[in-house]
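Standup notes
- HV: blocked on the assembly model, inputs below
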Amino acid sequence: MAQLDTGDSKGGKGGKVRSKKQNSSVDLTAMVDLAFLLITFFMLTTSLSKPQSMDLAMPDKGDKNKPEEDILISEERTLNLVLGPKDELKYYMGQLASPKEGPKDLTYTKESLRKLILDKIQSVPLATRTAAKPNGEPLIVLIKASKESTYKNLVDVLDEMAIGKVKVYAIVDITKEDNQLFGE
Amino acid sequence: MAKVKMSKKATAVDMTAMCDVAFLLLTFFILTATAKQPEIVPVETPASTVQVKLPDTDLAIITIADGGKVFFGVKAADVRIKTLELIGEEYNLSFTDEEKKRFSLMEEFGVPVNQLNGLIKLSSTDRNKEGVQTGIPHDSLDNQLTVWVKAARNANAEVNEKQLNFAIKGDAKEQYPEIKKIIDILQDQKVNKFNLVTGLRGE
């Protein structure tokens, strides 16, 4: 021990030089641990880096030369969401001049906006039940984004549409009257 | 009664095969991982709960960030070259093969057409410096974005014989009218369906 075996065997004990038997297997546990750690890292980062997308279909603008036809929709079915400045949000049912409900303030939260949409999607078909249509008519949501509202507000509302499974919704131009809801 | 002999088990397991597999997988993931391209402008996309992923092919991305600056990019490199050729025809500009090749490596860009040659000459680090790319003009006076959109659609139809999809990648803080402008530009060309790029909401 603690002596270099130089290989020469002159003199001394004159005995046989024994090469030490090396253990041929290496402990790979730590290496495998590291490898799997890296695998996990690459697996997670590759799948997460792909951005998500939200499909948005807008109605065709049609021919510019043709006069636009106004489509009349039922007041009871329309929920107007008006996106204002500084993350403000208001809603009313029907027309602004003679609203069926509201205008009231909302916030972009689960408790407020989502609750309203889930509530309306149930109540509107019930209210519009007729003999001809026993299931009633579905809810229509009109999204009116004001000039000061942000893109985030719009995506938030569209996301709520997807969550609430609202089939009929449209992004429409805001009117002067709607703008006045937020003062000025 | 025969004695039940407990066979002595070796405590060490042979790790060689496991190690091989682990490194094989590791190599695979490292090679397939796409490195994140440096962005010209940082874009903080709004979050949504939608799980649909953005398509990989036949896609053009219009980025709106930094107070209404617009950047444009096409995914496929061969379509990029074709788009540049069509733009060259439109504005009577000529590009050398070298310039086309350099352009095909650009993920997205945002300069007026007359500065395009200068931008292509820059190195990729210089290109992404702040203030170099000022956005593509898209107002009613000089609507170059419309021309780019048109060129990209024609190029994709020619190269891949497919419709080009458009994705809008807007910063969460962008004002709605800026987004509306882009939507209007797309709708004027009868592109009525597009993707909005969003991030993941942790819910």
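- HV (later): unblocked. Helices of chain A lie at 29-48, 110-127, 151-164, 176-179. The interface with chain B takes residues 25, 27-29, 31-32, 35-36, 38-39, 42-43, 45-46, 48-61, 83, 145-156, 158-159, 162-163 of chain A (CB under 8 Å).
- Next: hand off to the docking folks.
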